[in-house]
Integrase catalytic domain-containing protein (Candidatus Endonucleibacter bathymodioli), 58 residues
Amino acid sequence: MNENHNGLIRQYLPKSQSLDNITDKEILDIQNRLNQRPRKLLDFKKPDEIYSEMALAA
């Protein structure tokens, strides 16, 4: 799963791009986009949906 996640991040931050100029806002935007993306591993649910379901069940 980690390698897949790295590949998803690379869609927004190519290896050739320096991370020195990335703002916190840009990182949060990427994080939100990835958390809104359905995942096969999660039966095509979004990570934030799984988190919400688990939080409600606790």
User: Anything to note?
Assistant: Residues 2-57 form one domain. Residues 24-35 form the longest helix (12 residues).
